[in-house]
Amino acid sequence: MSKNKSASGQVRIISGQWRSRKLPIHDLEGLRPTTDRVRETLFNWLSSDISGARVLDCFAGSGALSLEALSRYASYARICELQSNAAKQLKQNLVTLKCDNADVINGDSLVTLKQGLDSTKEKGFDIVFVDPPFRKGLANPTLALLAEKNWLNENALIYLETESDITDLEIPADWVELKQKSAGQVSYRLFQYQID
C-alpha cells in the first residue's frame, strides 16, 4: 500500500464551519487519506443526516472524515487511531480548531470495539466511518463488532471504504446497502442499520 503523496502533509476541510481550513498530518506508513472527491461524494450522501449526529471514526488516520463531520455540525465524534503520532496530531488539530466535542482514542480499534458500549451510560452512534488500512483483513471483524456490541443507534449509517478487489465482505444481515461507488483501487459503500 503506497502513501498518498498528493496529501503533501495536509488535509483540507471541504465545507462547514471550518471550510477550506488546511490542517497538518503526519506522513505515516499506510496513511491513505480519503480523497477530496470521495469525501465530497460521501458527505453529499450524508448531507441531511450529519448535523447533530454522534460520529464514530474507527480508523481515523488523518482524521479527514471525522473532522469534516464536525465541521458540518456533528454533535460529537469519537476518533480512534492506532499510531501514536497520528493520534497526537489529531488532538493538536482539534485544539487548533477550538473543538471540544470530540475525543481521540490512541489504540487498537478492534480492542476498543470489543469492549462494547454500555447503553445504560452512553448513547450509541448515528454515523460510523470504517476506513481501515488496506490488505490487513480488518473490515469484517470491525463490521461484526459494530453489529454485536451495541455501538449503533437505530437507523445508523455506516460508511465502509475498502480496496476495490475485496471479495469476502461479510455484511451484517440487518444492514441495508444504500449507496456504492468505486474510484480507482477504492470501493466505498454506505449502509443503514435497520431494525425490523
Structure description:
This protein has helices at 36-45, 64-71, 84-96, 109-115, 139-148, and strands at residues 10-12, 22-24, 54-57, 76-81, 102-106, 125-130, 152-163, 175-183, 186-193. By secondary structure, the protein is an alpha/beta fold. It has one domain (5-193): Rossmann fold (3-Layer(aba) Sandwich). The strands form 2 sheets. A 7-stranded mixed β-sheet has the order 5-4-3-6-7-9-8, sandwiched between helices. A two-stranded antiparallel sheet has the order 1-2. Strand 6 (125-130), helix 5 (139-148) and strand 7 form a beta-alpha-beta unit. Helix 4 packs parallel to helix 5 (139-148). The protein is globular. Mean pLDDT is 88; it is low at 1-8.
Q: Note the beta-strand portion.
A: 25-35%
Morphology call: globular
Q: Which architecture per CATH?
A: 3-Layer(aba) Sandwich
CATH uppermost class = Alpha Beta
Q: Percent range for helical residues?
A: 10-25%
Number of strands: 9
- CATH H-level superfamily title: Vaccinia Virus protein VP39
* SSE order: EEHEHEHEHEHEEE
Radius of gyration, CA atoms, in whole angstroms: 15 Å
Low-confidence parts, pLDDT < 50 over ≥5 residues? 1-8
CATH fold type: Rossmann fold
Q: Main sheet?
A: 7 strands, mixed
Q: What strand line-up does the widest sheet have?
A: 5-4-3-6-7-9-8
Tell me the distance between the termini.
Answer: 39 Å
Count the domains. Answer: 1
Structural class: alpha/beta
* Helix count from the secondary structure assignment: 5
